[in-house]
Specification:
Layout: E1 5-12, E2 17-21, E3 25-31, E4 36-38, E5 46-50, E6 53-58, H1 72-77, H2 79-85, E7 89-96, E8 102-106, E9 122-127, E10 132-136, H3 142-146, E11 150-153
Parallel strand pairs: 5-8
Antiparallel strand pairs: 1-2, 1-7, 3-6, 4-5, 6-10, 7-8, 9-10, 9-11
Length: about 150
């Protein structure tokens, strides 16, 4: 049976989440997903899927908190503002229709400062049509990929 993606669930470093329905996703690219196997400390061995780069365009209708998500910051300001303010998207689950199965993707990450919460590789902006653009890439920024057509940029 073919897996059909129904949405994406971003997982932030502090444990908060944001689920985006497929209908609100425009441009999407997940580059070089690989499979790794290992463990940290005494945890169980796990299979993980890091990617080399990520970019996404999200329609303004997705700028809300899903009732199943845990998100304190997004309740007050909206998820777009939360993403612009904090560079802390760590990983993402790809959610499939008619299945409990999901694929977890880990993004490239380099701590921006000593607390380790912000990712030097994450950039985002809101374009002139009020769409959110996110790029997580060691070499490219959101402006380099999507241009400087933004009303708000970070």
């Amino acid at each position: 049976m073919k897996k059909v993606m129904s949405g994406l669930k971003f997982i932030f470093r502090n444990g908060e989440t944001w689920t985006i329905d497929r209908k609100y996703i425009g441009d999407l690219w997940i580059k070089q997903v690989t499979t790794s196997f290992g463990r940290i400390g005494e945890d169980d061995f796990q299979e993980i899927h890091p990617c080399g780069s990520f970019k996404i365009e999200i329609d303004s209708e997705a700028d809300h908190v899903n009732s199943n998500d845990i998100n304190l910051g997004g309740l007050e300001t909206g998820m777009f503002d939360r993403v612009l303010q904090f560079k802390d998207i760590e990983k993402m689950d790809i959610i499939y229709k008619n299945s409990a199965e999901k694929d977890r993707i880990y993004f490239p990450y380099e701590a921006l400062d000593s607390d380790g919460h912000d990712n030097a590789y994450q950039t985002s902006m809101i374009g002139s049509q009020q769409k959110l653009y996110i790029v997580i890439d060691p070499d490219k920024t959101v402006e380099k990929i999507y241009g400087k057509d933004s009303s708000v940029s970070k």
